[in-house]
Amino acid sequence: MRQIIVEIAVVLVLFVTAIPCRAGEWFAPLNKEDMAWMGANTALFGVDWGQTRYIAFHPDDWHEFNPLLGHHPSPGTVNSQFAVAIPLYWLTTWALPPKEDHGYKRIVNRETFSIAVTIAEGANVCNNARVGIGMRF
Hints:
Number of strands: 0
Oligomer: single chain
Structural class: mainly alpha
Shape: elongated
Number of helices: 4
Strand content: under 5%
Number of domains: 1
Radius of gyration: 17 Å
């Protein structure tokens, strides 16, 4: 059931972002700023991955809030999710149109998406560190 919800959500997000895009705007070359955002977010994903593995190895002390992983995920489940999530983030970033100063691309663009991911992942990683969750690889 969770898998179906995730697949529907991904399709809806892609559909909503695709509505205003012309075919030539999809998968435009990445610039240095896009690559910097991708690098920073990949680093945050790496920290989150390590923290989530720590939770998986300490089920009596911690539990996961991500409904896709369940309350007490196995390390294999954690690895599988992040092995899919990171390339999916890269692909989504690449697929979105670059930022422009006019029209819909002021809102629906790579930079806005990357900022949203940075805020969400950064908040998650900081909160995990604040409550004492370590990292384990």
